[in-house]
Structures are given as structure tokens and as C-alpha cells.
Design goal:
GO terms for molecular function: kinase activity. Pfam families: HATPase_c (PF02518), HisKA (PF00512). This is histidine kinase. It comes from Alitiscatomonas aceti. The two termini are 44 Å apart. The strands form 3 sheets. A 5-stranded antiparallel β-sheet has the order 2-1-5-4-3, sandwiched between helices. The protein is rod-shaped, with a radius of gyration of 50 Å. Helix content is 56%, strand content 16%. The protein has 3 domains: 160 residues, 2-Layer Sandwich (Beta-Lactamase); 86 residues, Orthogonal Bundle (Helix Hairpins), CATH 1.10.287; 154 residues, Heat Shock Protein 90 (2-Layer Sandwich), CATH 3.30.565. The protein is of the alpha+beta class.
Length: 497
Amino acid sequence: MKWIRSRIGEFYHKHTPSIRVPMLLFVVAACMIPLLIQGRLIAQSSRQMQVERRIIDVQNQCQILSNKMSRNGYLGNSGVDTSGTDTELSMLADIFNGRILIVNSGFRIVKDTFSLAEGKICISDETLRCFQGETTSRYDTEKHYFILAVPIADTVQTADARKSPKTAGVMLVTVSTESMFNMEEALLDKASLYQLTVFILCLILAFFAVGFFVKPFRAIVKFLDRVAEGGLDEDIAEESYRETKQISKAINKTLQSLKAVDQSRQEFVSNVSHELKTPITSIRVLADSLMSMDEVPKELYQEFMGDISDEIDRESKIIDDLLTLVRMDKSSAEINITQTNINALVEMILKRLRPIARRRNIELIFESIREVTADIDEVKFSLAVNNLVENAVKYNREDGWVRVTLDADHKFFYIKVSDSGIGIPEEYKERVFERFYRVDKARSRETGGTGLGLAITKSVIFMHHGSIQVESKEDIGTTFTVKIPLMYIPSTGKEKP
């Protein structure tokens, strides 16, 4: 069975049907199924009505004949001439294509229109109930006939019989409905021809209707083919239906994201080239200057070599940050989750950064609302918090402050890093997490920044399934808010920042 299922799956994968096929089948089925049901119901109801009408007709005729037989004493007097009545019975049987039996009070058949059972005993449920004064009928749907039992009243009346007349005999009528069944079959045959004609017409109309409905989706497919060939600058505006309008908006939104990613990638390559080339250019200029001078003083030589060493350190730091980003961008990036005391971790980070803050007389404040323990990668998360606090110190004012606040609820913990620094202009807030993006490039170079710190921070936070937001006012200060789940739940795919 597993082999058969796999083969069916492979066939379906190789021969994926068009959406037109199920739509075509649905439209045809929606038209034909009610038509078929209606035809069958009409045929059955027509036959049922004919059978009921035939039963009523036979019952009326038999009742008339039964009353006549009661008046003539058909079963009571042996000297009565019954030839006329027998003729009427035979004519009635022929008219309704049936058979009539006359059964006396001793359950003996005294008359059979087929002349086959006269003198024999007839005891049946219909006969017994009829002798109790009931007119009964039963229809056999499988053999297509019905039986009707009509009582024949006794001509001798007593005082008690006037209240409840005595039954002298039973008229047992069997009538075939085969002709009605044949008529139904003929009607169904004609209906089938009509249904076949309607089916062909529905198929043709459904084919053109489905083609008309699918046309907008074909336009979308053609547009996507052009996009696959490189036409990212086009926009699609297929608004034939609400669904195609929504799809068009989603595609255009996706294309805008792809354009932004492509532009970001180009800017990233350009920025990487620039950032890596700048230190090398500085080193070459310093080295060429030294080589072009004769009898270089020791002090100048040491100064140039110090500058060269600084540029090499800067180059090394850029490369290290790039490698860190590359490792985090990998879908298989490892994250070593351990349960960590966040309060102690933040205090340790602030302890390492206090000497840097003290040089500019910046106060580092740690405000712990409650004790927090969470599942994190201690090394990576320390790097993220360190980047946020270090940036708050570097881009701050003299005699300023940096406040780190730690809080938590039942599901997440929150770290806020606020400063009294220069702030970020409103138009740049959305771009501070881009790689190599600097609001103040001159200030960044003075502080030794690579422009990758916040990009690394965001990657780390997203690896922990968290989020980061920035609020800032120019010349007032900036606040970064980090939100991380207390319990780490591995995901099937890596979430992208």
C-alpha cells in the first residue's frame, strides 16, 4: 500500500492538474446533480400518483359491483342468475388488467375470472380483515401489483346486523401495475436523452465560463514569469475579482520587499568594500609616507606605526563583526540555551563598561524591578546588551547618564536602555538596525564604531524569538526596549530579523 501511495503521489506531482479541471467538474456537477435528482423524483412521484389513482378507481368500481352483488343475493341464493354479474366481473378484470376472486363466508372461492382457483380455499390477511368489515389494500413495489379486498354485505338483516352489517363474502382484486412501471422507464429513457443534451450544453458553457474566471489568474502567472526574468520594476494591478486584487497587493508588497532587500544587499556590499578599503588606504598612505622620508625621526616613526596599528585593529574589528553576522545569518546557527540569572548578567556587563563611562563622567544606573531567570544563550545575549549599553555611553553627552531597567511578567522579560545622549532624528530611526548604517558617520569613526553593533544586537534578539524597539528624540535621548520570552521554545525555521 505504501508503494502504491508513493507512486500515486509521484504521478500527481508530475502531472499536477489545472485548477480548471476541478472548477469544470464542480460547475457541471452543480448543474447535473439537481437535474438528475429532479428527474428521478418526478418519475417516482408520477408513478406513485398513478398507482394511487388506479387503486381509487378500482376500489370505486368494485364497491359499486359489491353493492350490486349484495342486492342481487349473489352469495345467498343459489337460484339467482349470476351470469350478468359474472360478465361484469370479467369485464372489470379485463379493463384493469387484473384478476378478481369472490370468496364466500367459508373462505371458498366461488368465482375466479381466470377460472383457475374456483372451489379452492383462500385464507389471507386481506381476506380475514375484510370479513371484519374493513376494505384493505396492499401494494407490492417489487413485483408491481396491488391487492384490494372489498367486503360483500349479507342481504339478510337482523336487529343486530343493522348496527353492524354482516359480511357474506369478499371480492379480492389483484391488479398489475407493470404498465405504469414500463411507462416510468420510458419516461426515464426520454429524460436521459434530455439530460445528456443538457449535460453537453453545461459542459460547453462551463468550459468557457471557467476560462473566463481563470483569465485574471493567468495574467498574474504571466506577470510572475516576467518578474522571474528580472522585471522587478513592474507592478501588477489585476482587480477583476476581490481575490485577485488581494493577490496583486500581496505580490506588489512582496516585490517592494524584494527590491528593498536587493537595494540593501547592494548597499551592504558597497559599505563592506568601503569600510574594509578605508583602513587599508590609511595604512598605505602612512607606509608610503614613511618610505618617502629619509632619516625618519624615532618619534615620528613611532607615531606612524601607532596609527598603522590602530587601523589594523579597526580592520580586524570590522572583520570580526562581519563574521559574527555571517554566523548568525546561517539557518543552522547554533544557540546554546541555558537558564540564566538575568540580573547578575546585566550587573556583570555594566561592571565591565563602568571604566569607559567613567572617562566621560557618565553615570551607569541599574534599576532591577524583580529577580528574573530566563532561558538564553548567555554569550550571544551578553553581546547584544553590551552593544546597547556601549552605544548609549559612546553617543552620550559629558556628565550624562545611562539607565538600564530590568522587569518581567508571567511570559516575557524586558530590558530598557535609556540615555541622555544626542538622540536619533525621526527619519533615521527605522534604519539604525541596518548594517554599516550610521546616523553621524564622523562621530562613529571617532568612537571606533563599525556600524554593525545594532545589526548584531537585532540578530541575537530575533534568535531568542524576541523583539526590539527604539524611541528617541533629537537632543533629548534614546530608549531601546528589548522583549524576550522567559522560556525558549525552538522553532522549525529560523526567524529572520
